[in-house]
């Protein structure tokens, strides 16, 4: 049985690239869809608002792992035989992220003082102008720390993609452990790489929170 060597470490680093790619795809796609969900949640149009509520409740009520299974095997049942694992994992985590980001951003938008909405309305601004010029700039300051915190969770949740066959960081650790049978060394390294990815984001989030000083604004 081979011992852990530099080739195994390089394999971990190569697999980390897929973890980063999946995280970026999830956050970018989930961010766009989540913003639309947030706008729909505060829309004056009743069917749009209730549709967004139903979407959020359904997605938040399904574990991400099950969502990945549904997307991956659902595509196979639908006739797509060679389903790209990365595409299936990305779609599942995008849907998952959009529901949570949509709720985070909806809460931040609605946390802007009502007087700000009323003042913008008194200026004769349209609803869209009130949103883009007055409300969203303030909501963005409030939303930045929890949004960065959620990105950290997304990075760690990408490990679930190994269940449908994606060789990302966690799956690479399992494969190396199966060949070397050195679980402590392998998974300490895997944990260290995850920490190296997540800790700078955590520091950035705390730094932004101090700079914006949201609680005193």
Helix content: over 70%
CATH architecture field of one domain: Orthogonal Bundle
The total of beta strands comes to: 0
Write down the secondary-structure element order.
Answer: HHHHHHHH
Task: Characterise the protein shown here.
The protein is an all-alpha fold and 217 residues long. It has a domain at 17-166: MetI-like (MetI-like fold, Orthogonal Bundle), CATH 1.10.3720.10. The protein is 80% helix and 0% strand. It contains eight helices and no strands. The protein has helices spanning 6-41, 46-60, 64-77, 85-110, 114-122, 127-157, 169-180, 183-212. It is flat and about 75 Å long. The mean pLDDT is 88.
Summarize the structure.
With 217 residues, this protein is an all-alpha fold. Helices cover 80% and strands 0% of the residues. It is built from 8 helices and no strands.
Primary descriptors:
217 residues, flat, MetI-like fold, 0% strand, mainly alpha
Write the layout of secondary structure elements.
Elements: H1 6-41, H2 46-60, H3 64-77, H4 85-110, H5 114-122, H6 127-157, H7 169-180, H8 183-212
Helix pairs in contact: 1-2, 1-4, 1-7, 2-4, 3-4, 4-6, 5-6, 6-8, 7-8
